[in-house]
What we know:
Keywords: Magnesium, Metal-binding, Methyltransferase, Transferase. One of its GO terms (molecular function) is methyltransferase activity. By secondary structure, this protein is α/β, with parallel strands linked by helices. The chain is built from 6 helices and 11 strands. The termini are far apart.
Amino acid sequence: MNQVIQPEWLVQAYKNIATSTIGHVLDLGHVPQIFPMSPQHHLVGLVRTVRLQSKNASQLRQVLLSCRPNEVLLIDARYELQRACWGEQRSVAAIHCGLAGVVVLGAVTDRQALLQLKLPVFAQSVSCLTTRNEGESLVEMDIGIELNQFTVQSGDLLIGDADGVFILKPDMAEAYLEQFQQLEQAEKNRKNIFFKQEKKEDYYF
Length: 205
């Protein structure tokens, strides 16, 4: 009998896995050109997918209210890449709703404010051109997002840090976890052995 994958257990396990460790092994699941607003942010959580296809992004409010705590909101805003759909006020609302973080396939705004907030926000770019309450707000939830030769669905596992973002299917995340843990430990051991013979302050500030 196959063991049932526990998503919450995977989330906790991957909090100790760097995206570069995953990238030593896998290509599939890498999300190109997406980085955190703050390099200190490390994000792991289960995805909730959203697609925005209008200048009006007001329906994102309903999306936030329907999200479950600790989810990662993945917004496909490629409909208009130069127009930011996310900023300070929505980040404050996301914190209030208990989200683990937000990843925007597109632009965000209010960069300085986002750097001061506790919510990890990842995006492709920053823009002063924003969405507006003009016309209909076209937002779809829980849809498949085609991305870099794979399809992201709600419930997939997202791992993000200063080096970028990976999104893995839960069964793949479980299958590779032990290998990733071994790679992390081996890297730690190599550094420990080296710095037993060298002064760490000669290499790091």
